[in-house]
Design brief:
Aminopeptidase, single chain, binds coenzyme A, globular, alpha+beta
């Protein structure tokens, strides 16, 4: 027989996942931009998630790559399926992941309780403006889903491409601080009315 505590923990985790961002309808209708499609993740995206998380280039400023064998074993059949997690598709194939989430463990006062934006794209998709196009569409979705809410963004200041992207998306510097052996940058974006 399953213990009631375990069942409760499972339900609580499910509810936390459901409500982390707030009262948003999920999954949303797929979002089309000029060149891209943003949608919730599906089983066919699993190999691209393995590539993203195992890539040394993608993870240079994110704590390093994960061993491919571990990912193959541990990733769920449909990775990263939660409200605010967008797969970015180009011509029918996943090229990146854009995340809007409200992590409970944030320590910096300006970020506590706020949703933050994250992004990872496969190296072959860099340098074409896809990340800017996809993140702008995800932020536009957020502004309509949760009107009036600012968003924050953390990145290493040495991550030049990420710093440029943050500026293009309208994030303004709040502070820089040392963590995990590097200078971190925290930016804030006011919602578009
Ligand atoms: C951060 C990251 C998403 C940026 O990707 P990116 O492709 O450089 O970002 P953009 O989509 O803004 O593309 C900008 C580049 O495309 C070029 N570009 C080409 N065609 C373009 C177009 N039609 N529209 C806009 N830009 C275009 C721009 O000139 C610019 O090139 P430059 O950097 O040489 O000046 C990518 O480097 C990445 O995935 N890094 C690993 C993950 C990571 O570190 N994430 C940060 C976590 S906080």
């Amino acid at each position: 027989m399953r213990r009631p505590g375990l069942i409760f923990a499972g339900v609580a985790a499910w509810l936390a996942g459901m409500t982390e961002l707030g009262p948003v309808a999920w999954p949303p209708a797929p979002i089309r931009t000029e060149r891209l499609l943003l949608r919730a993740s599906e089983p066919r995206d699993r190999p691209a998630f393995v590539e993203l998380l195992a890539s040394p280039e993608v993870n240079t400023y994110l704590g390093g790559p994960r061993p491919r064998a571990d990912l193959e074993r541990e990733l769920p059949a449909v990775p990263e399926q939660w409200p605010g997690s967008f797969v970015v598709e180009l011509d029918g194939a996943m090229i990146g992941h854009v995340l809007l989430r409200r992590p409970p463990e944030r320590q910096r006062p300006a970020a506590v309780g706020r949703a933050d934006l994250g992004y990872l794209f496969l190296p072959e998709a860099w340098g074409s403006g896809y990340a800017t196009e996809a993140c702008a569409a995800a932020l536009d979705w957020f502004d309509r889903a949760l009107p009036g809410e600012p968003t924050v963004l953390f990145t290493q200041s040495a991550n030049v491409a990420s710093m440029r992207l943050a500026a293009k998306l309208g994030f303004a510097e709040v502070e820089r601080f040392e963590a995990w052996g590097a200078e971190q940058w925290l930016g804030l974006r006011s919602p578009t009315p």
